[in-house]
């Protein structure tokens, strides 16, 4: 997965991608004063800098598996600490006071094992703060799947779709509540927010999706195939997302938030 990411494309909508991280951190109480913080799937560092700004005295470490993302993170935030590592296999030799994962854990399979392992890294009264997209059934995602299904040459690319756990029945707030409480967290806060993102035109929606879910598919196409795919995708978008009166488009995007604390 790490080879698919392109920090410049991802960062084209950096404000929209950062807003959920701001909302995630906003629910953490002022009494929480973590000394050791890990930002899992930190990308270009946009969430890592939020953590450092709120807790400037803390040791904050951003972790990502993409060298391209980390290159931009180091460039934009040279004073922050970043490590190249895979979320699924990374380990630590210290207890963590706050683990934050903004739009990253949906790419990792088997949450039934991953989440308890992350919780085991927490210190007493430590916190786990997670935000994941919950938008798999939106037209912007389903259009991709339909285009690939309806083109014999592209059908093999369906397996390249890295929607991760978004497609699994387990991806449900009630299931996560049980998983997190059984793993030792309490005082859980779980909610879902639908963001209505203003897009200038259909090309902007395509660029938004191209920054994440479309990357593994487009990477398997040559330039000619990409052009054909883009044309079909844009045409289908126009049937799913009507223009507003001012000519712009609202792109609904749902996200699932979970915050829990380890008892003292």
User: Looking at the structure, what is the overall shape?
Assistant: globular
Strand content: 15-25%
Overall helicity = 25-40%
Distance between the termini: 37 Å
Per DSSP, the total helix count is 10
Order of helices and strands: HHEHEHEEHEHHEHHHE
| Order of strands, widest sheet | 3-2-1-4-5-7-6
Write down the CATH topology: Rossmann fold
Q: Helix and strand layout, with pairings?
A:
Elements: H1 7-10, H2 14-26, E1 36-40, H3 46-54, E2 59-64, H4 67-76, E3 81-84, E4 96-102, H5 111-120, E5 122-133, H6 139-149, H7 173-182, E6 186-199, H8 202-210, H9 215-218, H10 223-240, E7 249-261
Helix pairs in contact: 2-3, 6-10, 8-10
Task: Name its key features.
alpha/beta, Rossmann fold, 7-stranded mixed sheet, 7 strands
Could you explain the architecture of this structure?
The chain contains 10 helices and 7 strands. It has 264 residues and is α/β, with parallel strands linked by helices. The chain has one domain: Vaccinia Virus protein VP39 (Rossmann fold). Strand 4, helix 5 (111-120) and strand 5 (122-133) form a beta-alpha-beta unit. It is globular.
Short account of what is shown:
The chain is α/β, with parallel strands linked by helices and 264 residues long. It has helices spanning 7-10, 14-26, 46-54, 67-76, 111-120, 139-149, 173-182, 202-210, 215-218, 223-240, and strands spanning 36-40, 59-64, 81-84, 96-102, 122-133, 186-199, 249-261.
């Amino acid at each position: 997965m790490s080879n698919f990411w392109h920090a410049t494309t991802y960062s084209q909508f950096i404000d929209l991608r950062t807003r959920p991280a701001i909302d995630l951190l906003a629910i953490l109480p002022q009494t929480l004063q973590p000394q050791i913080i890990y930002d899992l799937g930190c990308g270009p560092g946009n969430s890592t800098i939020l953590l450092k700004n709120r807790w400037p005295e803390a040791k904050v470490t951003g972790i990502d598996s993409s060298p391209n993302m980390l290159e931009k993170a180091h460039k934009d935030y040279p004073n922050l600490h970043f490590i190249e590592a895979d979320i699924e296999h990374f380990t630590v030799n210290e207890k963590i006071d706050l683990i934050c994962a903004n739009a990253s854990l949906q790419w990792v399979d088997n949450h039934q094992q991953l989440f308890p392992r992350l919780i085991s890294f927490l210190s007493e009264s430590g916190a786990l703060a997670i935000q994941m997209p919950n938008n798999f059934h939106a037209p912007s995602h389903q259009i991709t799947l339909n285009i690939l299904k309806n083109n014999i040459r592209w059908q093999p690319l369906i397996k390249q779709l890295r929607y991760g756990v978004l497609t699994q029945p387990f991806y449900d707030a009630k299931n996560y509540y049980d998983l997190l409480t059984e793993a030792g967290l309490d005082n859980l806060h779980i909610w879902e927010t639908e963001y209505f993102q203003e897009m200038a035109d259909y090309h902007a929606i395509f660029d938004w999706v191209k920054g994440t879910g479309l990357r593994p598919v487009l990477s398997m196409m040559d330039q000619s195939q990409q052009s054909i795919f883009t044309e079909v995708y844009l045409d289908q978008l126009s049937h799913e997302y009507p223009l507003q009166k001012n000519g712009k488009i609202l792109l609904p995007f749902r996200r699932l938030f979970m915050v829990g604390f380890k008892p003292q």
